[in-house]
Amino acid sequence: MKVLSLNFLQCAVKTCKTSSDSYPLHPKDAELVQDEIELNEDFLVNIMSRVDWTALCTTATELGFPALPSTPPTTETLRADGKTLKDLHSLLLETQMVEGKLVCGSCGHEYAVREGIANFLLPSHLV
Amino acid sequence: MQYLIRFTQLHETFRLAEIQALATLANVELKVVFYDAESPICIVELPSDDAARAVVERSILAHGIYEHWATAETLDELHVVIKRDTAHLWPLYHEPSFKLSVDSFRGSRSQKQKIALINTFSYLPFKGPILLSSPDFEFTLFEEWALEPVPEKKTVPFKVHFGRLVGRSSRDLINTFDLKKRDYISTTSMDSELALVTANIALAGPNKLIFDPFVGTGSFPIACAQFGALVWGSDIDGRSMRGGGGKKSLRGNFQQYGLEKLLGGIFVSDLTNTPVRKARILDGILCDPPYGVREGLKVLGCRDPEKKSYTVEKGKEMYKDPAFIPPKKPYSFTAMLDDILNFATDMLVDDGRLSFWMPTANDEDQEIAVPTHPCLEIVVVCTQVFNKWSRRLITYRRLPDSAVDMDALAQRKERGDGAQGRSADELNPFRRHYFRGFKSEQDSSDTVGIAQPGT
User: Chain B window 215-274: which residues touch A at a Cβ cutoff of 8 Å?
Assistant: First the structure.
């Protein structure tokens, strides 16, 4: 799954949702794959408003990418600065997590990622 | 300006819904001048040829759109109207190459008859070469014939039209995405025609984020990705997405169509215990939730935690094992619909669309009402009718918070969830009716009342 997906996922356990530590999930033993995809500037500008920037910074660092600036780029900056655009495109859309675990910072539950598909099913005592 | 849309005569209740959605997507004002559910011809008003092309080019249920020149009850009258109303346009077509064709709906014309019909248009001063393939301009005579059980009785069409072709549709995508040619399908895969129509009505398009929480083998995300959206899918059953691996998997399908770059991700999850964070980030949610028939709609959990405490305890021990399969319990279909509406309310951006399919039994007593939510406005309900049952595609628009009736919303929160019953049969009225062949409750009752003698 593309790294962008990680910005939209949190711990599935309902009692964890009240804790801010349940988002973002923390990749562990992650195996990544790089694709080559044509850059779409409009798309990136469009999703900036939907991406949680703080969580994205955490995810980028945990996956071994160079640190992102602490404040999100404005639309003007994005359109003007080709490098930021390219970096975000590469991180969010061209990088996929194919194996590993996603760990909740609150309850410690580990969700397995196998062949690119993450498993968020819970045993009955956690639903 | 008036344009004529030549629709297919299938999925009639979806045709206007689709074309109106495409007008919204193209940001074009469309006004319906004439529409009849029994006819494949629809007359609309659009600002220009470019607008007309933009509206029809993604349509699945239209064949094409034409500049409307004339409509009449007989061919002779048609020529009168054409000479009276369109003569000012004829100079445009003096020189370029052209062709005329005949489109007979519910009638048939031999080649000889078609040529004779075309020759009645010889008064048109088109002096350019006639090219049968790729002419500069194409004109079509449309004939509508009555639906007659005895074909010999029909001698002439009851209505005729004439128009200049402006743009064709994407109806041939149905063949490209035909399930018979898809590498990986299952019994629940939605047919390509309706998956594409659903994607259009849900306003799928480039730069949009779309999610299917009952993704199965991926029919809806494939259709949305074809139209340029970035798509995600989840399902409680991982096997339907993983398949046999390689080509025979959901990802394999995306690879087959060259759409893999638009697959954001797929994951295994239960919508009632979703890992998706609650934020207004999706442009569209499309799905065909289980009706509770074959699978018996299930969610995570143990049906009887007291009776089956062994299952719960074993779960606590084993859940970290990669081979562990969590237990599931039956769930009410109507409760699932409520969950879908709540999820859509939490996740859709303003004006985002929720489109899902649900069954309705034909018998009025057993109709499942269209679910409602104060934050979602019903855009359109389209019905596909089978022999003994039918299903609807319902599309909602997420209202901006400022437009929501807050009292209605508060009342809904108080009401809570009222799922009653425990077995799959009790929780899913549609399942009961389906397996009883849709007979009414009285027909299938075995008890006979015995009158008690008075004392």
Answer: 230, 232, 234, 236, 238, 241-242, 245, 251, 261, 264-270, 272-274
CA-based angle B273:B248:A29, to the nearest 5?
Answer: 55
Structure tokens at B311: 């299952």
ipTM of the complex: 0.96
CB contact under 8 A, A8 and B277: yes
Edge-to-edge strand list for the sheet holding B62-72: B31-34, B41-45, B2-7, B62-72, B159-168, B137-144, B98-105
Question: Please, are residues A111 and B273 in contact by the beta-carbon 8 Å criterion?
Answer: no
- Length of chain A in terms of residues written: 127
- The residues, ordered by sequence, that sit 6+ positions from B226 with a Cβ below 8 Å of its Cβ are B173, B177, B196, B199, B257, B259
- Rounded to a whole number, what is the largest CA-CA distance in chain A? 51
Question: Would you call B266 and A122 a contact, using CB atoms and an 8 Å cutoff?
Answer: no
pLDDT in tens, A4-31: 999 999 999 999 988 999 999 999 999 9
H or E element that contains B69: strand B62-72
B188: pLDDT strictly greater than 60: yes
- For residue A25, the distance in angstroms to the closest alpha carbon of chain B comes to 10
Question: B82 by DSSP, 3-state: which?
Answer: helix
Contacts of B268 in chain A (CB under 8 A): 117-121
Chain A partners within 8 Å of B349 (Cβ):
50
Q: Which of the 8 DSSP states describes residue B229?
A: -
Residue B359 has what pLDDT? 87
Residue B429 reports pLDDT greater than 90: no
* Residue A66, min C-alpha distance to chain B (Å): 22
pLDDT digit string, tens, across residues B62-118: 999 999 999 999 999 999 999 999 999 999 999 999 999 999 999 889 999 999 999
- The predicted-structure confidence for A48-78, as pLDDT tens digits, reads as follows 999 999 999 999 999 999 989 999 999 998 8
Q: Work out the number of other CB atoms within 10 angstroms of the CB of residue B14.
A: 24
With CA atoms as reference, report the closest residue to A2 among A42, A43, A37.
A37
Band (B426; pLDDT cuts 50, 70, 90): low
Alpha carbon B154 to its chain's center: 34
In this structure, are residues A39 and A86 in contact, taking their beta carbons and an 8 Å threshold? yes
**Which residue among B242, B276, B312 places its CB closest to the CB of A125?**
B312
* pLDDT tens profile B386-423: 877 889 999 999 999 999 999 989 888 887 644 444 45
pLDDT at B451 over 60: no
Q: What is the enclosing helix (H) or strand (E) of B240?
A: helix B238-242
The answer to whether the CB atoms of A10 and B275 lie below 8 A apart is yes
Residue numbers of B between 195 and 224 with CB closer than 8 Å to A: 206-207, 209
- Minimum distance, in Å, between the CA of residue A108 and any CA atom of chain B: 11
Q: Is the dihedral of CA B213, B216, B220, B221 positive or negative?
A: positive
